[in-house]
Specification:
alpha+beta; 2 domains; four-stranded antiparallel sheet; 32% helix; disordered N terminus; membrane; transmembrane; Genomic scaffold, ProqFM164S01; transmembrane helix
C-alpha cells in the first residue's frame, strides 16, 4: 500500500517519550525490510539532511545549531553508523525515506513512513566507540537486521521489557491509520530516559531478535487495514451474546473505558491513536468484519467463525423440525460447489448471531 511523499500522516505532540522512541524505530525496520523483500526498480533507503541533535557524553555538541527543549535519549555505547541511525529516525519532519518506486514524477514510500513534524525534537546522547569524532556523512542506512539489533540493545540497556513488542504493535497499525485518514498519536509513560548500566538478558535479547524471522507475515497483516480493524473490533465481541442483547452487553464495557484524554496513559493508546476509532465502531454494533481475520489471527471475531454444535435441526414445541437462524447463515455461506442459487453472496453484517429459529419447510437449504 504505497503512500505519496506529499501525504505522510503527521504525528501529534502527545506524551512524546518512551513508546514513541521505540515505535519510530519499528517504523524504519518495517520499511527497510519491505524494500529488502520487494527489490523494485528505483527502490532506495536513504537518510535526509534532517537529524536529531547529537551530543556525546563528554559534553561536546556535534551540532552547531542547538535546539531546545530536547528530549534526551541515551543510546549507550554505539558506533557512528548506529548513532547516525538514531539521529535519522528521531529527526524533525522525516530523517529517512524508504522509496518503494517512482512513477510519473511521483515518489511512493513504504506504508509505515511518517512525518514527525517540526515541534518534537530529540537529543541523542551516546558514547562513541573507536573514535571521538565520527564522520556521520559517511554512514550508510542500516539494514532491517542491523536496525533490529540496535533497537534490541537499546531496550536491554533501559530494561524496557515488553514495551519492545508494544511499540511493534503500534507500528503495525500505521497503514490502518493512514487508511482511515487519522493522525498518529504516540504515547508513553512519563519516564525521562537517563544513562543506566547495560543490563544483559540473553533470553530476552534472543526473543527480540527472533521476531525478525517473522516480520514478513506481520507486514502482510499490517498492510490489510480491513483485517486489522476487524481483529481489533473483535475484542469487544463475546460468544453467546445474541444480537438483541448487544446494547446491554456493550454498555457497561464502553462506560468503563477511559475517555479520549485518559487514553494517553492507557496501554491501548500505544496503538498509535487508533483506539478511539475502534471504540466508535464497536459502539455501533456493526463493526467491520473480514472473513480472513479469524484464520489469520486465530482469534474468533463473530459467530460465523464457529461451526456450531449438535444437530442443526431439532423438533420444536409443535413437533416440527426447526433450525436456528444463526445456523441458517452458516449453512448458506458454505463454499459453492454448484450454482444452485441457494447461497448468500455476502457475509453477515454483524458479528452478533441472529435470534430465534425457523422451520425447515421455510428454509431453502442445500440437500
Amino acid at each position: 500500500m504505497p503512500s505519496n511523499n506529499e501525504q505522510l500522516q503527521p504525528i501529534t505532540s502527545i506524551f512524546f517519550k518512551l513508546y514513541c522512541i521505540l515505535t519510530l524505530a519499528w517504523s524504519y525496520i518495517l520499511s527497510a525490510r519491505l524494500l529488502e523483500l520487494q527489490k523494485h526498480d528505483g527502490a532506495e533507503l536513504v537518510y535526509t539532511s534532517s537529524t536529531a541533535n547529537p551530543r556525546a557524553v563528554d559534553g561536546v555538541d556535534r551540532d552547531e545549531v542547538k535546539r531546545a527543549p530536547p528530549i534526551e535519549v541515551h543510546i549507550g555505547e554505539a558506533e557512528s553508523n548506529v548513532a547516525r541511525w538514531w539521529m535519522a529516525i528521531q529527526a524533525p519532519k522525516h530523517g529517512w525515506k524508504a522509496v518503494l518506486t517512482k512513477r510519473n514524477d511521483n515518489v511512493y514510500l513504504a506504508p509505515w513512513s511518517i512525518d514527525l513534524g517540526e515541534d518534537e525534537l530529540f537529543e541523542i546522547l551516546w558514547q562513541g566507540i573507536g573514535t571521538s569524532a565520527p564522520e556521520f556523512a559517511d554512514c550508510f542506512p542500516l539494514s532491517s537486521g542491523e536496525a533490529l539489533m540496535a533497537l534490541s540493545e537499546f531496550c536491554l540497556l533501559h530494561g524496557l521489557g515488553d514495551q519492545f513488542f508494544g511499540a511493534f504493535a503500534a507500528a503495525l497499525t500505521f497503514p490502518t491509520n493512514q487508511h482511515y485518514k487519522r493522525r498518529i498519536e504516540l504515547s508513553s509513560p512519563t519516564i525521562v530516559l537517563g544513562r543506566v548500566e547495560f543490563i544483559s538478558d540473553k533470553a530476552l535479547g534472543n526473543e527480540y531478535i527472533a521476531l525478525g524471522d517473522d516480520l514478513a507475515y506481520y507486514m502482510a497483516l499490517s498492510c490489510n487495514p480491513s483485517v486489522v480493524m476487524s481483529s481489533l473490533s473483535g475484542s469487544f465481541w463475546e460468544p453467546g451474546v445474541p444480537c438483541n442483547l448487544v446494547s446491554s452487553w456493550l454498555h457497561p464495557v464502553v462506560e468503563e473505558l477511559p475517555t479520549r484524554s485518559e487514553l494517553a496513559e492507557a496501554p491501548g493508546a500505544a496503538l498509535s491513536g487508533l483506539v478511539p476509532k475502534v471504540i466508535y465502531l464497536a459502539k455501533s454494533g456493526t463493526p467491520p468484519l473480514d472473513p480472513s481475520g479469524f484464520p489469520w489471527t486465530s482469534s474468533a471475531q463473530n459467530f460465523m467463525d464457529f461451526a456450531g454444535s449438535g444437530p442443526y435441526f431439532a423438533c420444536d414445541e409443535f413437533r416440527e423440525y426447526a433450525i436456528k437462524r444463526a445456523n441458517v447463515w452458516r449453512l448458506l455461506c458454505l463454499p459453492v460447489t454448484e450454482d444452485d442459487g441457494l447461497h448468500y453472496n455476502s457475509l453477515s453484517f454483524s458479528p452478533w448471531p441472529p435470534i430465534g429459529q425457523t422451520k425447515e419447510k421455510n428454509c431453502a437449504l442445500r440437500t
